[in-house]
From TrEMBL, chain A:
<keyword id="KW-0547">Nucleotide-binding</keyword>
<keyword id="KW-0648">Protein biosynthesis</keyword>
<dbReference type="GO" id="GO:0004826">
    <property type="term" value="F:phenylalanine-tRNA ligase activity"/>
</dbReference>
<keyword id="KW-0030">Aminoacyl-tRNA synthetase</keyword>
<keyword id="KW-0479">Metal-binding</keyword>
<feature type="binding site">
    <location>
        <position position="255"/>
    </location>
    <ligand>
        <name>Mg(2+)</name>
    </ligand>
</feature>
<keyword id="KW-0067">ATP-binding</keyword>
<dbReference type="InterPro" id="IPR002319">
    <property type="entry name" value="Phenylalanyl-tRNA_Synthase"/>
</dbReference>
<dbReference type="GO" id="GO:0005524">
    <property type="term" value="F:ATP binding"/>
</dbReference>
TrEMBL record, chain B:
<dbReference type="Pfam" id="PF03147">
    <property type="entry name" value="FDX-ACB"/>
</dbReference>
<dbReference type="Pfam" id="PF03484">
    <property type="entry name" value="B5"/>
</dbReference>
<keyword id="KW-0067">ATP-binding</keyword>
<keyword id="KW-0820">tRNA-binding</keyword>
<dbReference type="GO" id="GO:0005524">
    <property type="term" value="F:ATP binding"/>
</dbReference>
<dbReference type="GO" id="GO:0140096">
    <property type="term" value="F:catalytic activity, acting on a protein"/>
</dbReference>
<dbReference type="InterPro" id="IPR033714">
    <property type="entry name" value="tRNA_bind_bactPheRS"/>
</dbReference>
<keyword id="KW-0963">Cytoplasm</keyword>
<dbReference type="InterPro" id="IPR009061">
    <property type="entry name" value="DNA-bd_dom_put_sf"/>
</dbReference>
Amino acid sequence: MQEQLQQLKDEAIGKIQAASTVKELQDVRVAYLGKKGPITDLLKGMGKLPAEERPKMGALVNVVREEVTAVLDERLVILEDAAIAQQLENESIDVTLPGRPVKTGNHHPLTRVVEEIEDLFINMGYEIAEGPEVEKDYYNFEALNLPKGHPARDMQDSFYISEDILLRTHTSPVQARTMEAKGGEPIKIICPGKVYRRDSDDATHSHQFTQIEGLVIGENIRMSDLKGTLSVFAKKMFGDDREIRLRPSFFPFTEPSVEMDISCFKCGGSGCNVCKKTGWIEILGAGMVHPNVLEMAGYDSKRLSGFAFGMGPERIAMLKYGVEDIRHFYTNDVRFVSQFHRTEV
Amino acid sequence: MLVSTKWLADYIDTKGLAPAELAEKITRSGIEVDAVIDRSHGMTNVVVGHVLECGKHPEADKLSICQVDVGEEVTQIICGAPNIAAGQKVIVARPGAVLPGGMKIKKAKLRGEESNGMICSLQELAIEGKLVPKAYAEGIYVLPADTQTGADALGILGLNDTVLELGLTPNRADAMSMLGVAYEVGAILSEDMKYPEINYASSNEVAENVLKLRVEDVDANPMYVAKVVKNVVIGESPLWLQQRLMAAGVRPHNNVVDVTNYVLMEYGQPLHAFDYDRLQTGEIVVRAAHAGEKIMTLDDQERELQAHHLVITNGQEPVAIAGVMGGANSEVHDGTTTIVIESAYFKPASVRQTSKDHNLRSDASSRFEKGVDPNRVEAAAERAAQLIAELAGGEVLQGSVKFDELDKTQKEVIVSPDFINNRLGMKISLEEMTSILSRLKFDFEAANGMLYIKAPTRRQDIQIEEDIVEEIARIYGYDDIPMTLPEGESTPGGLTPYQAQRRIVRNFLEGAGLHQAITYSLTSKELAQSFALETAPVTELLMPMSEERSTLRQSLIPHLLEAASYNVARKADSVTLFETGSVFLGETAEGLPHEEEHVAAVMTGKWLDHSWQGERKTVDFFVLKGIIEGLFAKLGLDHLVTFEQTQKDGLHPGRTASIKLAHEVVGVVGQLHPTEQKKRDLKETYVMEMNLAKLLNFSLEPLLYTPVPRFPSISRDIALVVNRTQAAGELQQIIRRAGGKLLKDVRVFDLYEGEKMEAGQKSVAFSLTYEDPERTLTDEEVVKAHSKVLKALEEEGNAQLRG
Ligand SMILES: [Zn+2]
């Protein structure tokens, strides 16, 4: 019986070693160690043995059983590892293949510029004011110190709908309307929007374009406040090391009137093609609100003063992104618009 | 305004500043210098030549062989100009010279004959053709006979000069003259200026005895001065005068006309010269034109006048349109011997209207319409008389013929130094302020802490205190203004809810795969109402620049479709664009169109292209509908939106839905009609447009959380057989209504219209979810609710459970 046991053990270990899959190994386990297996049979057959041999024999069977189990478990780990290795090999993919695309669009570059400016001034306590694109001559011109027949009306040829109604030529009528509505109270607004002028469309002109203007009215608003505000704007919009300079100019709705240049963000001021070798780039027009404009809207120009400024997002986008033709903004060529996909903070 | 720096030096010492430096100073203190033009253009080796001999080229009809004395030598030059002749003094570019166009002059052989240089026209020296005197417009320029042979021609021609091109704003009419610019430069450099000295001998004959003057329209013409000059000899002006005019952008004509133009440029006062004899009556009457009256102007155009036009007449018929253009009938000509010089003040508005009516803009009208200096009207007439006496050999009659009711008082502005400093945020001392006012040549008095300023009449833009603030600031320098931020209460700032929501809409659509487009608001009358959600009377321009941009749009779709066609024509495999913008409808009580903000989109081509894993999809109706549904969900309106089959011009009759928000139509979505697609070279294309304002102004209850369900839900799937035309959305609504409180959700999960169905029928499968937030549902309850649903479907939707 001892021999029989040894033989059984050798046979089982031989099969265990021969098993090449987890499944085969499980079969071996069932065949040799299962309830109907030969080892169990041997244990069952121990009843026939003399009583004094039984403990010895029982111990022997258990040793064999444990030995076989240990070999089997060891083999199982090896086979399972091999199986996983095989699975991993089968499952490996070419990670360089393209991913499933997520389709996204983006802001039009003008909206990108406008929102950047809006947010910058919102953080300085401004609200955003909007108004109609078709305006009364009164709000577009007269309320802004441009009476009928004023020579400065030549500066902006307009699209009239009737004698008194036209497509607004700037967003300033929003300022006039806001002032009228505020009834003498302080104001701090930014007015973005579409405007229209009688220009033939070419690389630098567009009959429709965008403007963004600002207006601040309060007690003791000074020209130095305008300069300080514009400097903050220039640094946030074009870089911390931007300097600004003011040059005298003329707008009927402001007095004094100025134009603001920033030091060239491309060359830093040494002169390049962006700044036309001057080191400076003209960015916007501004000034102290003309007392006639304040008075017409019901403000006491002796008690309150204000400043206003205005700029063109097209020009800013052209400078910032190096766009050479204003018509790109209105053609909506996907190859153009989609270039403004990435964020910049 | 073109300012020759050489000419300017007659009136002001520019302290040896280089023109570019001077330009920078002028720009920084008030008047933008648009360009600094070096008139020499770097030319050298251009000299005065004396044509000694001139003969025909044996081989070429149009060429002449000239022997030219160029000072150092006599040399042969071939010349092609028709007006070349022996004895002339001419401009010669010698070998080695580089002309403005980049042309290099070399020794050459022309048809076998040697040519050592080139005889030049003024155009070849970069003078615009329209400025070259007519006699030399088609050939070489001929210098006066006494010009020194071999001299530097650039100097003789005044081309070693730099011209500043001023970009004048409408308020600075004072700088439309050399004297005005000299005042400005004087203030900047703190230099005094020199006025031209006027003295000439006049004859004993009194002007008033030969010319009568009557002004009938005093309002339009408050001042009129006439000088009479006899025995003039019309001829070419001296070279210095011609040069200065050309530098100023004026073409020389003859000595009399040139003098009037010279004084116009010098004083900013337009003048006109009449031929006294051609006036015939010895009389000048200024009056309003008679309606329908006609005049032949100097440019040989017959012009019909209206009653609001002011005319100069000889007492019988018009001889000039006042301030705008002279008449041909009284024009100075080669045989003129007696002239009348007119210097007047015409009311700006009158000249502006007249020049606009006749579409005539001239150096004269552009000055009159901004208001000339009342104190220079007479001085300019005297200056012209002096120059004509000098240059045309005339005898100036004694005195002027004058009408003068013009107000010449200076405008007084009273301002306190504190006001100036408060406005600027600066601390400029009173001494500095008065020094600036002195430099500007303003009369002033400082008393009682105030400045009493009298602005010179040339500076009619100085009217109020703020104008003085600007004068002080610009001369003091804006660089010295400190940088501060507004004081006083701080404001929170921010977007309105509407503006914030609009940004959310844009961001959502972009996240969903659409690019933002911006298209034109103006369109053609034909397209203005296409695809409009709602039409109303259109808004049209009075004077459009083209039919294509004549009318304001009532829908955003037409231009988005144009953008789609544009991109498809350029081989884009997909176009997904949206736009937010106004449409313009009818008229409000204020007389303006209703402006309504809309959002629209166009989609065509590839949607998902992930073909190596077998996923590939082109845009269809449900792609766009899904985006719209997502947008409504983002806005919290998804439970209020429904889509209903509809028909709309330009859209596919079977693939179009109206979008309803709480039972009100707010938009449309659909496929472009196949014939419309073909017209635009588009394949299957989908569009939508919604009234954005209605979406964003819809008021919702504040967001509150609903407890996460604690009890399990139970699902039931049903497949229904219905008529093929039965809308799934309606079935869904029937289910919702019948399902009661326990029905949590219902969604379509399958649609079958294949051959296994009877003709005219289809199968739609729904998945229903029942749930009770308070407790676990019993089978019984679900069965009860579910059978109600089935009953309602059968009764209301004529739907049978599929076996
Ligand atoms: Zn630069």
